[in-house]
From TrEMBL:
It comes from the Eukaryota. Belongs to the TPP enzyme family. Keywords: Decarboxylase, Lyase, Magnesium, Metal-binding, Thiamine pyrophosphate. InterPro entries: DHS-like_NAD/FAD-binding_dom (IPR029035), PDC/IPDC-like (IPR012110), THDP-binding (IPR029061), Thiamin_PyroP_enz_TPP-bd_dom (IPR012001), TPP_enzyme_TPP-bd (IPR011766), TPP_PYR_PDC_IPDC-like (IPR047213). It comes from Aspergillus cavernicola. The keyword Lyase applies. It holds the Pfam family TPP_enzyme_N. The keyword Transferase does not apply. This is Pyruvate decarboxylase. The lineage of its organism: Eukaryota, Fungi, Dikarya, Ascomycota, Pezizomycotina. Its cofactor is thiamine diphosphate. CDD domains: TPP_PYR_PDC_IPDC_like (cd07038). Residues 13-123 form the Thiamine pyrophosphate enzyme N-terminal TPP-binding domain.
């Protein structure tokens, strides 16, 4: 770590110090909700060059922070302790499970109040503030409870380093700590962290160069059934969980597997750690580039009056996607069906494969769209569009994110579908009334057009090709009505396998 001393610099407050470090790492928009114990620190956000997005609740803010981190490599979330941090905990759990580097800053009662065990509001009322510390110790990869201005800079450095290195959420508690931290040294050695951020593995380069047959798991998108007959399988960042392996059916003999992780490689049963795998891949890349396999789309034009069906919807929607778009698909028929989307170059797909907390993607869409906006400003060039395929049930979970989208004038397109929880119906019959609300949309801002459109058949959906939707400017909600029991075949298979496993029919 570099020194914080600088001959000319003014001394800085703790919160300012932290936010300026986050700025150095590429954060521009901060997610969060104000409350006692974090209010003063919020004053430092703007002077540090950051912007507070103003989320509607901590859970949605946490999901937004997760989405932002997946696009920009790191994000910041500010909440108060107790009610705030526990509301965000589900999102932090998801970020931990699925490796999104979120820095969660928690405004906490001052040390003297905690030491006295005062019965303060927002606590459990038993004077034991360590309860919250313990909860977060289990749910984050690193924690800093800043109580000493002398050690705070080193603690902040370490917590940010761990967050980036492990790509998991980390927690910083601001215990009402007052006191200057010494001058801010802009030259502090953050290269190692920047290295981590820009050093994202790009397996597609290897795939292009070799022309090897390629399969992408649901977490990365795709489907595979040829693996069992392969001599060699090279896997990038494998995640061997039930939902990512079609109920563990795509796993093959370890002897023929090479697993490439961010900092390690395992070949068969051997493991090499502390490697920069990106550099290693570069040396492997052959010079000749083979043309990429281009999937054909044999679908005929749909009958205009026919209902929109899951079996062909996803393939047809592929034409609508653009290079550099980010596409989010929510748990349910959207994430299963989304596996059939044929992605254009440089498109990024974000879905949940492990945590599967519904409502996640609408919340994350806020962070993704903000990250796209920040990137466009930083690089002075337009980015791709943010597209969300959401289920109507999941949409209800985090609907308040819509007002944050409007409040920040974020350009977002999303589609919702059938009447209720179709995925759950396929597991076990359940009926709930469908409710979709659409509120707070600006109607008087020509620079931010808002479109709400409902398509009940193919003919109506094709009309969606409007200029606004294509341009990705403003907000477009396209409600795609599908049969409430219609599900992608892959989802039906997955559900069947999960049911058989639960009943002990398969191991
Ligand atoms: C926080 C949370 N609560 C409950 C569930 C269980 N669950 C999984 S999918 C689902 C229904 C999703 O419905 P919808 O978004 O409409 O998807 P679709 O109808 O397309 O399947 C539910 C309730 C969950 N995964 N996460
Ligand atoms: Mg639904």
């Amino acid at each position: 770590m570099g020194s914080i001393g600088s001959p000319n610099g003014d001394q800085v407050d703790l919160a300012e110090y932290l936010f300026r470090r986050l700025y150095q790492l590429g954060v521009r928009s901060v997610q969060g909700v104000p409350g006692d114990y974090n209010l003063v620190s919020l004053d430092y956000i703007k002077p540090a060059g950051l912007y507070l997005a103003g989320n509607a609740n901590e859970l949605n803010a946490g999901y937004a922070a997760d989405g932002y981190a997946r696009v920009k490599g790191i994000s910041a979330l500010v909440t108060l302790f107790g009610v705030g941090e526990l509301s965000a905990l589900n999102a932090i759990g998801g970020a931990f499970a699925e490796k999104a580097p979120v820095v969660h800053i928690i405004g906490t009662p001052p040390t003297h109040a905690q030491n006295l065990g005062l019965n303060l509001h927002h606590s459990f009322g038993d004077g034991d503030f360590k309860r919250f510390v313990r909860v977060y110790r289990e749910s984050t990869c690193a924690q800093a409870n800043l109580v000493d201005p002398g050690t705070a800079p080193a603690e902040i450095y370490e917590v940010l380093r761990q967050c980036l290195k492990l790509s998991r959420p980390a927690k910083v508690s601001l215990l009402g700590l007052k006191g200057k931290l010494g001058p801010f040294d802009p030259g502090m050695d953050f290269r190692i962290m920047h290295g981590v951020i820009v050093d994202i593995l790009k397996p597609d380069e290897l795939i292009r160069a070799t022309g090897y047959p390629t399969y992408v798991t649901p977490f990365g998108k795709g489907a595979m059934n040829w693996v069992n007959s392969c001599d060699l399988v090279i896997r990038f960042g494998p995640l061997d969980i039930d939902t990512n392996t079609y109920g563990f059916t795509t796993l093959t003999d370890r002897k023929v597997i090479i697993d490439i992780h961010r900092y390690s490689i395992s070949i068969g049963r051997g493991l090499r750690q502390d490697l920069n795998t990106k550099d290693l891949l570069r040396t492997l890349l052959p010079c000749s580039i083979h043309p990429l396999f281009t999937p054909s789309s044999p679908l005929q034009a749909p009958i205009q009056s026919a209902p929109i069906d899951q079996a062909t919807f996803w393939t047809r929607m592929s034409k609508f996607l653009r290079p550099s778009d980010i596409i989010l698909t929510e748990t349910g028929t959207s994430s299963s069906g989304g596996q059939d989307l044929i992605l254009p170059p440089q498109a990024t797909m974000i879905n949940s494969a492990l945590w599967l907390s519904i409502g996640y993607t609408l919340g994350a869409t806020v962070g993704v769209a903000l990250a796209q906006k920040d990137l466009a400003l930083q690089n002075n060039q337009p980015t791709g569009r943010t597209n969300l395929f959401d289920g109507d049930g999941s949409f209800q979970m985090t609907t308040r994110s819509i007002s944050v989208i409007f409040g920040n004038r974020l350009n977002v397109i999303f589609l919702i579908n059938n009447n209720g929880y179709t995925i759950e119906r396929h597991i076990h019959a359940v009926e709930l009334p469908g409710r979709t609300r659409f509120f707070g949309a600006p109607t008087d801002d020509p620079s931010y057009p808002v479109l709400a459109y409902r398509a009940t058949n193919w003919g109506e959906l094709l009309l969606m090709d409007t200029v606004q939707v294509k341009a990705g400017k403003g907000f477009s909600l396209v409600e795609v009505v599908m049969g409430q029991d219609d599900a992608p075949a892959s989802l039906e298979r997955l559900v069947r396998m999960a049911a058989e496993r639960n009943e002990g029919l398969i191991k």
